[in-house]
């Protein structure tokens, strides 16, 4: 009996190990890739430097470059910093770091700029629960970490209660993915982790 159990354990271990291996896939670019997001198991997007935007419809096996319009790139800000798609077609991107935040409703083919509150000079971090509710993080102009909260397309600055250097930028934001929680986290290039317990209105 012990030999049978041991054999089963070895087979299970081998099966699990085979499911956790990685293999490299080719992409149609040699440029630096900064961000990846999969709204579904088959459809995914990659954003990179020099305005590179890639899309897959087969779970990442093959990638094609997206010939998009609508983004006005500023000098020195041609990079996709972060992507967050809430459906196969609807997604958000931060461009720059100083070009702004954009939204697409057709799978990345056309983009429109989000109207921010004006408090952000540098853009990076991004989180959207759905197409009407989310956050764009970054920094004010030499004022340290800053963030906008979007509700039904309207942006307002949040309150961040933490010391910050002038060049520190919020680079990532996350909330509970299963049900929108009042608690969320954000991380800064200055080495800080910020937390909210009031759905993103204030951060400490």
Order of helices and strands: HEEEEEEEEEEEEEEEEE
| Number of helical elements | 1
Trace the largest sheet across and list its strands: 1-2-3-4
The helix content, as a percent range, equals under 10%
Termini separation comes to 56 Å
Outline type: globular
Give the mean pLDDT.
Answer: 88
What is the radius of gyration computed over CA atoms, rounded to a whole number of angstroms?
20 Å
Question: Can you offer a commentary on this structure?
Answer:
The protein has 204 residues and is mainly beta. The chain is built from one helix and 17 strands. The chain has one helix at residues 2-19, and strands spanning 33-37, 44-48, 53-56, 64-65, 79-85, 91-96, 100-104, 112-113, 122-130, 133-139, 145-151, 154-157, 159-160, 170-175, 184-188, 193-196, 202-203. The strands form five sheets. A four-stranded antiparallel sheet has the order 1-2-3-4, with no helix packed on it. β5 and β6 form a beta hairpin. The longest helix has 18 residues, at 2-19. The chain starts with a helix and ends with a strand. Mean pLDDT is 88; it is low at 1-16.
């Amino acid at each position: 009996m012990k030999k049978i159990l041991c054999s089963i354990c070895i087979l299970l271990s081998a099966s699990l190990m085979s499911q956790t291996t990685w293999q490299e896939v080719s992409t149609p670019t040699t440029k630096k890739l900064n961000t990846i997001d999969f709204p579904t198991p088959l459809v995914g997007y990659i954003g990179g430097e020099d305005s590179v935007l890639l899309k897959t419809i087969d779970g990442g096996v093959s990638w094609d470059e997206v010939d998009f319009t609508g983004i006005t790139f500023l000098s020195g800000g041609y990079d996709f910093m972060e992507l967050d798609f809430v459906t196969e077609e609807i997604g958000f991107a931060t461009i720059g770091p100083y070009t702004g935040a954009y939204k697409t409703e057709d799978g990345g083919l056309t983009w429109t700029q989000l109207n921010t509150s004006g408090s952000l000079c540098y853009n990076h971090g991004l989180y959207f629960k759905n197409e009407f509710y989310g956050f764009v993080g970054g920094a004010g102009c030499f004022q340290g970490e800053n963030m906008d909260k979007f509700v039904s397309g309207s942006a307002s600055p949040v309150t961040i209660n933490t010391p910050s250097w002038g060049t520190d930028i919020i680079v990532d934001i996350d909330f509970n993915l299963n049900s929108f929680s009042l608690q969320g986290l954000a991380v800064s290039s200055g080495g800080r982790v910020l937390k909210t317990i009031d759905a993103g209105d204030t951060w400490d």
